[in-house]
Write a structure and sequence with these properties.
- Two copies of one chain form a homodimer.
- Chain A folds into two domains: 7-133, Jelly Rolls, CATH 2.60.120; 135-214, Arc Repressor Mutant, subunit A (Orthogonal Bundle).
- Chain A has eight helices and eleven strands.
- In chain A, the strands form three sheets. Chain A has a four-stranded antiparallel sheet.
- The relative contact order of chain A is 0.13.
- Chain A has helices at residues 7-16, 71-76, 97-106, 108-134, 137-152, 168-175, 179-191, 207-215; strands at 18-22, 27-29, 37-43, 46-51, 57-63, 68-69, 83-86, 90-96, 161-162, 195-198, 201-204.
- Helix content of chain A is 46%, strand content 24%.
- In chain A, helix 5 (137-152) packs across helix 6.
- With 216 residues, chain A is α+β, with helices and mostly antiparallel strands.
- The interface between A and B is large, with 41 and 41 residues.
- Chain A binds a DNA duplex (30 and 30 nucleotides) through helix 7.
Amino acid sequence: MLNDLHIQEQEVIDEHKECVRYRKGDVIFHEGGIPKGIYCIRKGGVKISKMTSQGKEQILFLSQPGDFIGYRALIGEEVYNATATSIEDSSICYIPKSDFLEIMHRNPAFFNKMIKKVCNQLGIMEQNLTIIAQKSVKERLATTLLMLKESYGMDGDESTLIDIRLSREEIANVVGTATETVIRLLSTFKNEGLIDFDGKRIKVINEEQLKKLAVA
Amino acid sequence: MLNDLHIQEQEVIDEHKECVRYRKGDVIFHEGGIPKGIYCIRKGGVKISKMTSQGKEQILFLSQPGDFIGYRALIGEEVYNATATSIEDSSICYIPKSDFLEIMHRNPAFFNKMIKKVCNQLGIMEQNLTIIAQKSVKERLATTLLMLKESYGMDGDESTLIDIRLSREEIANVVGTATETVIRLLSTFKNEGLIDFDGKRIKVINEEQLKKLAVA
DNA sequence: CATCAACTGTGATTGCCATCACAAAAGTAT
DNA sequence: ATACTTTTGTGATGGCAATCACAGTTGATG
């Protein structure tokens, strides 16, 4: 995302940004907090999630190295409506609000890229909402596994492996279901030869069949 | 939204826009179609909805006079991922892509307003997704009724009336549930004195209680 | 205003999935 | 290594809500 900036702009960012290491479980920003800058993930992984009044977590999306997080609330001039939590040891850069907004307004191409990004994200969220509202848990889990493979699939030999370590509970909080249900369904998928797993490492064995399930 | 434009820009739009009347049920744009402009509602009402492969409809949001629709796909340079359908007789202006984009890029304040708008919309969608994923149908229906009152509540005498005529099926497709379930729950709410209705005109009688239900 | 279609409403039934309870395994810390 | 916490896994149970079936009502249309 930052690649399109001019050299002098990159320098501004390099000067002002500060990179911080976060341990697994550390919170980067919290629902209700006031955004004072944006974050860019260099290494590791982050989950963006909301808590309901009953203390249930809904994971909205997962972010990887290269992704910006926290820009929605900053640009929208709202408080954070979700919490960002490191799901593994991560290195994350912080770019102060003033620097970010200045660059965005000085550089029309970058501004353009940002608004496109937000629009695409909105499209994804509309799609996810529809899936959660209209499909069964089994179909949603299949969809989630395919999404994870898309985002975290490996190259080469291990191309079937989903290279992210999520707990069963976290998968449940993406799908919007109970942890036990995820455990049971993953076992079913394993028995049916759709996937394989040992602990948290999940492999997609029969992607075609999984896709059929997902659209069912 | 258009009020912030300069006078000459308003003139450009006035020259190029064309306003069309749509009857109830008419489709303004269709999922999968290529956006060639944006729409601004002058009169009436529009639902934006997605269809699942099983033919189930999910209503993503409802638009009123003054609202833009179709800008997400246009700006994001995607095909429409939802369908816009007139839910009553409406008058809707069409602004060609080139005019809209030119004005957006010429007028930084307007550009800013647009990106803020998309960010806010994304926040709303994230909130809705969480509600649908984590709350019971009863809680979601209560939330939807409150949202409808917020958007379509009247002033003065009839301040309790929700001034929009949605079928039970359409309400169900907002909430993400079956039509029969909505019918039953609305009757329950009526019996409990939370709401009152005669046909499609719904009144909120006990907003406080409804709010308690919604957050439950 | 007659006819048909669409919508509202009610009852019965099924089943998906949440919840509770608890055992086993894995990971973490001392 | 040992104790403790967290995570994974399994079984039993119950309830919410989808689905099916059909009656009554409203509304559209020629």
